[in-house]
Amino acid sequence: MWKYIWLSHFIMMLYLVNEIAPMVEFTNVKCTSWDKKFDDFEYCHLKSVNRSFKYLSLKVNLFKVPITKVKVNFALLKRYSGYKPFLYNITVDACKLLKHPKANPIFGFFHGLFKEHSNMNHSCPYDHDLVVEKLPTSFMNQKITGALNFPHGDYLFHSDWLAYGINRATVDFFYTLS
Hints:
By secondary structure, the protein is α+β, with helices and mostly antiparallel strands.
């Protein structure tokens, strides 16, 4: 009798362990403007409302508008002994891809991580400040863990924003997948 009870508990535990989903936790964000005459970050921070709700917000003020030529280099890095390249390192013409988003599904996936919480949802020209407002951990959990099966660990989403062929800003977004 006890054998069957123990076996049923063991099977139930295996089922529950299988149902546990990976979790994304924001750890840090760093925003750097490389040309303060062209742009500058008004704010760039993580805000922790409580133990389970954390969000990202940033605003970059653009001083030389309209901007008609934008390229973005983004790379996904995983921490081993320092951050090492992991899976993607791509440079794209953001103006073209925002006009034809299906042309590059990888860019579409990464843009989809923040587009619903941003005003960067149209093609060039950009004649306004750029904002990502209150991007919550729960949204990232849904997007990252639902679409891709990454190994657990510490990650860095690194992006360089180039206007007219010059690197104008860098945004480094650190998170843990556990």
